Automatic annotation (TrEMBL), chain A:
Lineage: Eukaryota, Metazoa, Spiralia, Gnathifera, Rotifera
Enzyme class label: translocase
Binding residues annotated for ATP, in chain numbering: D389, K390, T391, E473, F514, K537, R570, T650, G651, D652, R740, K746, N769, D770
Chain ranges passing through the membrane: 270-291, 823-843, 858-880, 901-922, 942-962, 974-994, 1014-1037
Biological process according to GO: phospholipid translocation
GO CC aspect terms: plasma membrane; trans-Golgi network
Alphabetical list of Gene3D superfamilies matching this protein: Calcium-transporting ATPase, cytoplasmic domain N, Calcium-transporting ATPase, cytoplasmic transduction domain A, HAD superfamily/HAD-like
Organism: Adineta ricciae
Record's protein name: Phospholipid-transporting ATPase
EC number: 7.6.2.1
Family: Belongs to the cation transport ATPase (P-type) (TC 3.A.3) family. Type IV subfamily.
Entry keyword annotation includes Transmembrane: yes
Entry coiled-coil feature ranges: none
Catalyzed chemical reaction(s): a 1,2-diacyl-sn-glycero-3-phospho-L-serine(out) + ATP + H2O = a 1,2-diacyl-sn-glycero-3-phospho-L-serine(in) + ADP + phosphate + H(+); ATP + H2O + phospholipidSide 1 = ADP + phosphate + phospholipidSide 2
TrEMBL record, chain B:
Protein name: Cell cycle control protein 50A
The entry's keywords: Membrane, Transmembrane, Transmembrane helix
This protein's record includes keyword Transmembrane helix: yes
Family assignment from sequence similarity: Belongs to the CDC50/LEM3 family.
Compartments reported by the entry: Membrane
Transmembrane segments: 41-61, 319-341
Amino acid sequence: MDDDTKRIITINHGPQQTKFVSNRISTSKYSILSFLPKFLFEQFRKYSNIFFLCIAVLQQIPGVSPTGRYTTAVPLSIILCCAAIKEIIEDVKRHFQDGAVNKRRVLIYRSGNWLYTTWQRVKVGDIVKVLDNEFFPADLVLLSSGEPHSICYIQTSNLDGETNLKVRQGLPQTAHMISSVQLRDLLGVIECELPNRNLYDFAGTLKLNNVAFPIPLGSDQILLRGSQLKNTAWIYGLVIYSGHDTKLMMNSSSVPFKRTNVEQVTNSQILFLLVLLLILCLFSTIAGEIWNYRNKAAHWYLGLTRLTDDKTANSIPNHFGYTFLTFFILFNNLIPISLQITIDLVKFIQAYFINWDIDMYDPETDTPASARTSNLNEELGQVKYIFSDKTGTLTKNVMIFKQCTISGIMYGSGNVAEFNSYELLKNLEYHTSSKQIREFLTLLATCHTVVPENKLNTDSFNDVAYQASSPDEYALVTAVKEMGVVFFRRTPDSVVISFRGQEETYEILNVLEFSSERKRMSVIVRSPNNEIKLYCKGADSVIMERLVADEPNVPLTMEHLESFAKDGLRTLCLAYRTLTDQEYKEWLVRHREASTAINNRNELVAEVAERIERNLILLGATGIEDKLQDQVPDSLSMLLKAGIKIWVLTGDKKETAVNIGYSCKLLSDQLLNLTLDEATLDDTQRQLREHCQTFGDSLRKENLASLIIEGKTLKYALSPSCRQDFLDLAISCKTVICCRVSPKQKAEVVELVKQSTNEITLAVGDGANDVGMIQTAHVGVGIMGREGVQAACASDYTIGQFRFLTKLLFVHGVWSYRRLCKVLLYSFYKNICLYVMELWFAFHNGFSGQILFERWTIAIYNVLFTAAPPMALGLLDRCCSAETMMRFPAIYKMSQNRSDFNIKVFWSWCLNAVYHSIILYFMSYAMLRHDVAYSNGQAGDYLLLGNMIYTYVIFVVCLKAGLESDSWTMLTHIAIWGSIASWFVFFIIYSNIWPTIPLAPEMRGMAKYVFSSMYFWFGLILIPITALLADFIYNCLQRTLYKTLMQEVQEKEVANQDPYDLVMARQTSTVSRVAERLALLKSVFVRTRTPKMSGIIPGPYHGFAFSQEEDGVVPQNQLIRTYDTNIQKPPGL
Amino acid sequence: MSTPAENEADNEHQKSKKPADTAFKQQRLPAWQPIITANTALPVFLAIGLIFIPIGIVLVVTSERVLEFDLDYTDTNCMSLNVSNTTCADVLAQANYTGASCTCQKSFTLDKDFEGDVYFYYGLVNYYQNHRRYVRSRDDNQLLGKKDAVSSDCQPFQKSVNGTDITPCGAIANSKFNDSLVLSMNGNISVPLLRTGIAWSTDKAVKFKNPDNPQNWFATNPRPPNWQQDAWHLDTNLTDDNNGYQNEDFIVWMRTAAMPTFRKLYRKLSLTESTTFQNGLPKGTYVLTITYNYPVTSFSGRKQFIISTTSWMGGKNPFLGWAYITVGIICMITFVVFLVLHKTWKTDDPLAYQMRSMQMNQRTAAGYN
């Protein structure tokens, strides 16, 4: 048996022989059972947790720990509990999302009955019925459909990003199964390959019991999960791969763990700090040993000699290693134990702020923004490259007929949302060009591959719906329908239209198909008055050269085309010619010959078509708007202003992509537009070299240039020999557009930039074809569109509209970054400030490892007394209002440059902490040097000093958080003053529990004695102020002398002034410099331009773009011929 | 089985996806934004300077008013009365620290009247009461009067040779300071001293409790090896309240000092016992009779006898006062520097800048709106 290499599925034969994966999908991390082990494993993969676990274990060795046995274990478990709660909340969310998908309903045919069931219950071998606009619940083999010849249309934009619909066709042997009766008789076996991630290939065979030989199955019969049924009433499909075996799920590998830049810097600094800690421990140990060696015997009262002599009792070990451990435990908190959880919590809530943002709520689709992972928030503030998908992300994938030009007269306006046909119809009646207008409209109604679908009453023309695999044609046919020229019936050899109420039948004689080489499509029709006409539509470049010699309207039409293109419309030129019977007959003979040729059929047909598509008469041109998502051009220009480079990676054709580039204002005549469209590796290499050399000094700098590259050229450009040149060239451009790129290439491009520039990349997309790049980029953003959730599921953030990206980056990104940096720095600061104190004290206690404070008070330092201020910094701090940040993208550059957190800043904070601890310790020491702290003559002890210092530390550390806050909200006040108060409350309670609770005998009475000392109160005023004085002065000087843009803007804002001119004043200089550079650059490029060099878009841009499936299962010609809309479709039950 | 009702419920559930428009969720909480520049911080520096300098002066004066007299009696200031020309320290050393006692007398003169409450301290120098092993070596449960087995923390003074628990156990208790210091005026009027009221009230009331039947308990259990008598005989006046664990000298000792140089309250002057001392310690000649038991020379320690009055702040310590004055002066200097900076800053660049921006404002106003 070769079961290992193929999958065998029986049809209608009860349960399957082999057990297959269920169709239930799960993207969640934990189940109830796996939670604990998996969670602990995850947690203890983090270095810091391992570190503290080790400390907790070391503390169990008797006599080693200076801080008791559980002072690390307890805070660590509190922290782990917090982390667990967070994980549970996040995972429950995922469970709900999975549940929503798993519980979608579908109609399945099981043991002779149709029944509704949920997706998760669908099994391999089931026959399902999917209705129009529904998603396929699993990978299916198409059996039959409601359309003729079991054709169906599917939208795969979710999988591969292509906009046009694709045609799939069931096998002829199963096509007749249009009711349950026939389905019941379907018996047989499907053999197919094992589940794999290849989206485009499929191999299998269908062995039917009533057919003698096995029938091959290919990718034309496969309907993949993730795609959607379109323009087809229903299909029957047989499930072959389910659940995680589907190609979609195989392709969406588990979300890779992304580590942020800040995290990396933090980790390396932690390692540094660890080394420092070890040095510190080593130093203290040696010092301690030396002290011991010298003084052990002399200081008889310590009983140290007696200790080592007494071997019988379980004596406390005392040698180098143990002393080292003692110090290690003593100083371990230099590395903040609560850092991880503080950051996690802060990020977690920051993510909620993103979810809660009402400005990022899309009311149309009812989608709020959603942060699926919380650990990348700060990366949003540092993005330098955005990789965007086109369809569904920048565009709505809706085409609208916007403008046209007929005989040199322009109709419609770019400013109005919909085409106004009044003028056109008026001219149709009375104008001299009325004949042309008539031909124009007729052409649009006849020359296409659209299929009408008449709803119940066939005579009401307004009810006609169209099925089109090309959205452009759909837009055109719909537009003429609105003008009263309704295409309403198609039979295999004719098209019936109603021309403003008058029914006309055009016999379709020939269809000359569209292809991207030909860039045009023609039909030859016999008109009702028995004329033979050729209608042709296509790119201006191909139409213009096929016109009759002295066409008068060419210049005007060209002008109009340019204006359409400038508005970002997709243009098509229309032309026609009348053929004589003789002419046609001669041509037809040749055509037949060509189309039956055995070799080079396609070339021959194209050549023959060429012969008749000439001497055309220009009718005009159309302008179709590829509707952009709301405010896309504005958002993009804001992103560009923020110094972000934008790359558009699309599966669409170059024309379409360029077109969108113009309509998004990414491309313009103000930019130097470079194109790379080379067919071989050598050409690509040469071209890249040339461009790079032309750039000269400005290579790898910001230039006002854009680059457009074809998918196949990109393949060569990504090869090792071209990689570097391509990268150099690409990052010299503001905008890069890559066309016809596969999902894998998208990921490769992102990977290339990510690897070699060390900048933060962000990928945004909406389809499954974007999953790769979304997962590769530092930050992946999914557009939660109306259709499909694949991209959203793989992404780190989902938003409803592209325009929300600006707020996500400019506000949430910048805020999160700045806040997180402060939290990080502050967390290190507060721990160093407290724990370095032990080192100073060690100088006074013979390096014995004695702690200055009570063990539990320092154990809960991080979890109670100083837990709130970092949260306040991390959640509430804001420098400027969201509105200001949105208005001035320039502010974004600050966080983009990572000025808030780098090695220098980190160590200056550490030194700051050391400085504070020196002030705190030595001032307090000097203050109590004579011990007598009371007017009744009584003296204190070490803990009295310790508790005073501890109180001062709490003050300094909390107030430092205040000093670093840019804004004090009510909650900030609560966090800071509350933390201080919490220490006092704790202190008072804790000083009174012994001996009622057998804890902390040394603390008994402390609060009373600390508070009754006047030294304490005078020190409380003096010492924290002294410690913070330097910081305060530094802040003053910095604000006065080296103000940052952000601070200036903030000042203006506080003073209720408009910071507009300020931001502008800072920018003008750079802008003018860039403009100069552009002029220079353009001149260089123009000078060196040779005829061979195709790098620059020649001449004015005319905006041709047209999408149509090429080389599909069913050729366009055949597609047209298969339909007869006079015949009722089967209901499929 | 299709249940349309369920779908409707689903739809209604989805209606509420729009985030709530609250100040917190939209991060629009009203906030105070302090902008600290040389300009705005001026009053702060001025205020700190103006407040701190007077406070400092008051504190320095207060500290200066405290009278203090130190007598280091470690060696030459304490010549043995029995063995001529030998310091008591040497006497102890010669006896190999096996409990030998030595008595000496030292006379000194007070130049000023020590008015009001007068306190007597013993001070130790280079004595590491803050050593980790030393600080640990005690059992607070035992000191509460519990008769349970003592904690191993007390090691190596946990158990005596025959295995019974030492009372009180631990290194701290074992090394209790046991010199006795007696003061007399002009060599004949003994200065009345109070042995109580020197320990923290909380310690006396809560932390240190004698076990039941203390006399018997302390007599039957082994005392710390360095002690010459058991805990019940710490106060020879035999006031039960000041014996055993509740002995205040013992309690004071058990509060381990923060620094290797420290002082501990030894006695208070009794103002009521004699009319001579009702206003404090008058100036004159005094003789200090020292029973020298406590060896410190092995670790080069020093022992001091200190007489001091207190202010409302406590003992003599001018540091805080001078620190206040220093910080106050720094603030005043900063104030002046910033004032200058502020003046120059104002006239130099920004005015021109403001003019420019105003012009730009006018020019761009139309375009901007």
